[in-house]
Structure formats: C-alpha cells, structure tokens
C-alpha cells in the first residue's frame, strides 16, 4: 500500500485557511465587545424607549376621573334616576346629552362642578348619548362618553291615579290607582306607595284586582287636612320583566266635611256640612223597576251639562235604541262607574219629593240650559265637590259594590285591611 504524505505547500495552505477562519471569529467577537448591538438588543432598547414615552404621557395625563351612569350599552335604564355624571379629582367643564336623533337634553351642573344630571324625566324606549369633559387642578383635561337606552313601554308599568296634584276634594275621596298592566308582585308595588295625612289617620291599601289599588283611612278624611301620595315605583318589578317608572309626590287638600243622605222612600236629600244640616232638598230616585243602589257613594266627576243615553248603560228598547237619550242633562255628578248620577232634571213635572221615576239616578229639580242658579239642581252642584259623599238609604235595591266607582266605604274595615298586600 502506498502511503501519501502531505507536502509542505499543502500544509501551509491549510494553516492559512484555518487562520483566516479563526480571524473571522475574532473579528465578530470584537464587534460585539465594541458596543454594537448584539442579537436581541434592539428590541429591548425599543421597549425601554416606549416605557419612557408611556411614563412621560402618564405624568401629563389628567387626574380627573369621570363616571357616567348608566354604563355604556345599558338597556332598560330608568327614565328618572339613571342618567348622571360625576367626577373625582377634578371638575366637570362640559357635559352634553342628546338623543340618538340629536335632540339636546337640558341638564344642571352642580355649583362645585362635581356632578351633572338632566333636568327632567327621560322618554321611554329612547337611546341617549352623554359626552363629558373634566379638568384637574392643573387644568389637564379628561374625557368620557357613554350611550344607553331607556326602558320600553312594553317592559314598564305606570299607575294612573286620582285625585290630582294640588286639588281640593271631599272627605270621601280615596286615593285610587289604576295600573296599565297586571301586577303580580303586589307587595313590592304597594311597598313603593305611601299615603300620609296631616291628620295622622292610618291609611291602608286594598287591591280590588291585579290592576287597581285604592288607599283610604278607616273613616272619612278629616276636613281641612292635607294628604300626600308618594310613588317610589322607579325600578320596582311589578311583574316578571315589567318594572315601574314613576317617582313623584302628589299632594291634595281635603275640604269641608259634606255628606248628603238620600232617603229614597221619603224622596228627600239632607245635606250636612261638618255635621250640621244646611239644606233639605226634594228628590226623585230610581223607579221600582230600576231602583237606585243603596250605600255610600263618592262624587267622582262633575259636568255642568252632559248627554245621557240609555243604550250606553244597557237600557234599550226592542229595536236596540236607548230607552232615553237626553243630550243636555244639567248639573250631573257621577256616583258609580256603571252610570249612577245625581243630576238636575227639567223634564220631570211634579215628581220631586213625591215619586221615584228614574232609571236609577237621583234627580233634583232644575232648568234646561243649566243657567238658573236658584234651582235645587244648580245649588247642589255649586255646593258639591269631587270626593263628597252621597249616601242612599231605604231603596229596594242592593248596596252598591265597593269597586263600582270610588265606593270602597261600603266595605268593613276588616275586609278592607284583608285586601292589603303588606
């Protein structure tokens, strides 16, 4: 076998190549030691620079912290108390609130700049946008924005109440609330309703059905007292998925104590004020075929003149027409939902104080046109107010049901209290 031996020239070329390779490595190492960027050092430097920028920005940021309610994107928001803007570590400098259609909502900024709220009740099923600006003690500004939608009519309920705010009523006037949706959580709703009187009388509510709640004391209101109704129903769940939206206080006054007693058998009405008889008036009550209800009835409406059509209350002839249709009944005052009135009568002759001839109403002598103040019908109308009590006795008919009009006084106190949900 032949043995090959490396020549000197080949050995020198190999050593030269090795030296070059080692020299390259040393050169690369020298670059790294020389202060140049080693692998990954550029990214680290970029992070450091961004942190410095963020820190500088943070030092320049406003300390003011704005809070807007409801939260952005909220639905079914209250129309009363939901919308509000507040700030800490600063003062609000500008707040705008608009509907999604661009209509501005007026509001009030607190004197110290700490809060803002709209001036009035919002609309249901409406989307609102709020934009707020605040400044801290160094004048640096902060901004916040929010959008929310108020509760819809389908998901809310209201109570239509009587008597009206600021009115003066008779001693028999209950607070009557009719809800526009059935209430299943009666206790929760009744807990949100408070009625108080300056007389100190205890007031209790009674549910006639799932949409009507009346409240009254055990006896008639004291004459001259002041009664307040407070509705705190905002956000109260009246039924599954249905909440209240009302938040208000209503105040009314009670006038003199007037109670008028109709004796259907004697054909008279005795009017008392504060327990003293001030007038006795001949009347004509319901005929034997259509007698007047007995019981305590409260005047709920007054009309100087009105039309009375028998067809609207079930009195029709064989042709389906009303047994009567009087287009100008004078001085009419409603006593029941079913159509019982006490009113003037100009068409009856010689019946007052002697005969009962009506279809269930109580009639007083009067003049057509309701323009003679000296007639018994005009006198009683002028001296009566909504909430006055008219008691009918000695009629062959039954006692009126308590829910037929504002006539809960025909229920015993124990029965009344039993109908309360609280």
From TrEMBL:
GO cellular component, one term: extracellular region
Protein name per its UniProtKB record: L,D-TPase catalytic domain-containing protein
Keyword set, alphabetical order: Acyltransferase, Cell membrane, Cell shape, Cell wall biogenesis/degradation, Lipoprotein, Membrane, Palmitate, Peptidoglycan synthesis, Signal, Transferase
GO molecular function: acyltransferase activity; peptidoglycan L,D-transpeptidase activity
Database matches in Pfam families: Big_10, YkuD
Organism of provenance: Streptomyces nitrosporeus
Keyword presence, Membrane: yes
Residue numbers annotated as active site: 343, 361
All copies of domain L,D-TPase catalytic, residue ranges: 258-393
GO biological process, one term: regulation of cell shape
Keyword Hydrolase part of the UniProt annotation: no
Top-rank taxon, per record: Bacteria
Signal peptide: 1-30
UniProt pathway annotation: Cell wall biogenesis; peptidoglycan biosynthesis; Glycan biosynthesis
